[in-house]
Amino acid sequence: MNILITGGAGFIGSSLAKSLLKAKHDVSIIDHFSTFYNVERKKEQVNQIKRIGPVVVHEFDLLDEEETIVHFKNHKYDAVIHLAALPGVQPSLTNPHAYIDQDIKVTVNVLRASGISGVPHVLFGSSSSVYGNQDGPVSESFANGKVKSPYAAAKAGAESFCHAYQSLYGFKLTILRFFTVYGPWGRPDMAIPLFLTKLLNGESINIYGRHQSRDFTYIDDIVNGIALAFNQTGQSEIYNLGSGKPIRLEELIRLLMTYFPNASVVDETFRAGDVRHTWSNIEKAEKELGYVPEIGFEEGLRRTVEWAKKYHN
Ligand SMILES: NC(=O)c1ccc[n+]([C@@H]2O[C@H](COP(=O)([O-])OP(=O)(O)OC[C@H]3O[C@@H](n4cnc5c(N)ncnc54)[C@H](O)[C@@H]3O)[C@@H](O)[C@H]2O)c1
């Protein structure tokens, strides 16, 4: 298949690109190398992809509606996985308009361009944040719009636009809700990579509520889930891609202390915008896609710590 990954220079996109090349797909990426985190890091991720196989890299801003539509008209993609976005919950509290641009307007541009150019299958990288704060495992139908941050509102809004354009153009739509993805090359603003950078530099780490829990999901499992979703048979489906096994932050700290026994941890108060718990019910993805997360948290963390030690050297 000829597959386009938007945001292909990013954490999830670059891992996916490598996996799709190994599976002998034709892979193109669109990315404008945003400055949300280190641009050199994204260039490095693209170099990693190029070592696996021939990838076509288009560097432009998907916020440019005309350029996006012209690009799609000039290329025939069998499937588009839309991962380009401005991520991060806390920065969305101080800069909400950027999230409307990057997470809603960019998504609308990709959806319209896909529809106009006749892309048969559009997949959208959504987030567990659309569930807001809920106790217990969440199934796909549990998203009720009661979100906790502008980032989450933008993701929920983008999902609505996905449904609107699916209905207008009739392409196959798959919405994938990712739950806190971690692993080698993890996004440097997220908790585990941030903690590891600080610990490797001998700095203390700040934690905003030890009783919070996250459904940490290893990058390879997410990439497998996305690859399986290319075979989805329904016309318009939503799937949770998580581990189904939430980890309390105090447990994360305990495990990190086994690698960094002298770690200093500073307890801070809970931050507005965050949710207290995430916990995926992954039965639908298991049953319909054959998705089975394989990397347990202790093993995933071990691999991530090992990678971080090498990378920081
Ligand atoms: N990492 C997670 O835990 C997680 C969890 C839930 C959802 N998601 C979603 O998954 C997707 C990928 O996340 P990630 O962690 O790989 O993030 P990332 O920041 O590493 O990757 C996003 C990529 O999109 C590119 N991009 C952003 N705006 C663009 C634009 N206007 N034009 C072209 N390129 C643009 C960036 O340069 C970047 O390379 C995002 O939609 C994110 O919201 C991620």
UniProtKB/TrEMBL annotation:
It comes from the Bacteria. InterPro entries: Epimerase_deHydtase, NAD(P)-bd_dom_sf, Sc_DH/Rdtase_CS. Keywords: NAD. Residues 3-242 form the NAD-dependent epimerase/dehydratase domain. This is NAD-dependent epimerase/dehydratase family protein. Pfam families: Epimerase. SUPFAM superfamilies: NAD(P)-binding Rossmann-fold domains. It comes from Guptibacillus hwajinpoensis.
